[in-house]
Amino acid sequence: MRVALLLLVATVATLGAQPPVPRATVTGRVVLPASVPVPEAKSIKTTYDREHCGNAVPDESVVVDAKTRGVRDVVVWLRPDDPDPKSNLGPADLPPADAKRKPADVVIELKGCQFVPHVATARTGDTLVFRFTDPCAHSLIFPADNFGRTQLPIPEKGEWRRPVPADATVFPFKCSIHPWMEGHLRVFDHPYHAVTDAAGRYTIRDAPAGKYRLVYWHPIVGYRDGKDGRSGVPVVVAAGLDGTQALPPVGFDITRRP
């Protein structure tokens, strides 16, 4: 009788257990459409601290690789397969290890009188770290509502740390001493986001299998396809034999202005 009872309990537990959700590493590229000419690389003349900054710095507002047509600094993220842009991913969409995740440092260097990287992403609760490696002073400005209009003069070789606010979404940051310096941060409450590299490539790891949408956003032009692009492009995430899924390139004209 006791053996039968134990077998019954084990059977019920087995039937009630939920199988793990298959996951995939999603890769892709964002490219300038073939019909759009590749913009020339431009530079911005400096006005202060030229002995450290040089006479000019690269203009990073729009960066396209001339050989691959890859678009840099596009933020790509996964969201529910729902046309309502306000819908969010739920706890079941997150990887099991996410519950034990510790906040990470998101480091942005002030190097060569520019923000490196120019565009970054973070999770809610992460720590934003501005690291000053230039041999000259900088003064940070956060015009976004999430941080309030804050101006922080920091001496050379200094560092500034602050937790990312829970209600943050996207905001720019600048330097009031060097007006050409500008960067952007986008904040998420899930891990499925990435920023394209110099060749337009991105990688989103541990994405759950199923029907979702991918959103493409650039700090200068906003969403791909304008306002309609807020809900994203439908995509079916399915892990291949090696656990990866390579998506076809997506065209995004970042030379247009909203």
UniProtKB/TrEMBL annotation:
<protein>
    <recommendedName>
        <fullName>Rhamnogalacturonan lyase domain-containing protein</fullName>
    </recommendedName>
</protein>
<feature type="region of interest" description="Disordered">
    <location>
        <begin position="79"/>
        <end position="100"/>
    </location>
</feature>
<dbReference type="InterPro" id="IPR008972">
    <property type="entry name" value="Cupredoxin"/>
</dbReference>
<keyword id="KW-0732">Signal</keyword>
<feature type="signal peptide">
    <location>
        <begin position="1"/>
        <end position="17"/>
    </location>
</feature>
